[in-house]
Amino acid sequence: MQNKQLVFVGSVNWVNPAWQGVFYPDDLPDDWMLSYYNTQFQAVFLPRPVWQSITESAWLACLNDTQDGFYFVLEPAGEGAGWPASERVLRAFPGWINDHVWWLDEAPDLRALAQRITRQAEKGEPLFVFSRSGDLGLMQQVNQLKQVMGY
Questions:
Q1: What pLDDT, in 10s, does the model give residues 88-98?
Q2: Domain ranges across the chain
Q3: Could you identify which of 3, 132, 139, 146 might form a hypothetical disulfide with 151, taking C-beta atoms 3.0 to 4.6 angstroms apart as the criterion?
């Protein structure tokens, strides 16, 4: 991971029916959703069944449809599972999750998150802040927090 950015905000999956007409415009084609999502957020966490169902050509499209600083964080699968080959695709093993992921819905305290961001910055390690529920309000607050903090 060679991105200079330190804090990456996103959700579990970029497809969320509750976002239609609220976050995504009603007339946005489905195949444009990821690109649109990437205009506001810098990462997405994909559960194993989701990412394993994406074809190789669809993975290439996902990587091409997102900016260079955008990351796909994948829930790990068993041995022999095919991982997309890209430095923007990260495997989220349990130890890695403990060190690099903040689950926003479980700990929405922005003051505590700011302290965690500071600790990560001191170590020079990235922090991925994900919402399991896709709480757009909280995700946007985190984007504002990281901007205020200079990250």
A1: 999 999 899 99
A2: 7-149
A3: 146
Q: Which helix (H) or strand (E) holds 142?
A: helix 136-149
Q: Note whether 130 and 124 are within 8 A (CB).
A: no
CA distances 26 to 109, 134, 136, Å, are 32, 18, 17
Strands (DSSP E) found in the chain = 7-12, 43-46, 71-74, 89-91, 101-103, 127-131
Under the banding of pLDDT at 50, 70 and 90, the label for residue 150 is very high
Q: Give the Cα separation of 45 and 11 in Å (integer).
A: 6
Residue 54: half-sphere exposure toward Cβ, Cα within 13 Å = 19
| Residue 131 near residue 14 (C-beta atoms within 8 A) | no
State the CB neighbour count (10 A cutoff) for residue 131: 24
Question: Is residue 2 over pLDDT 60?
Answer: no
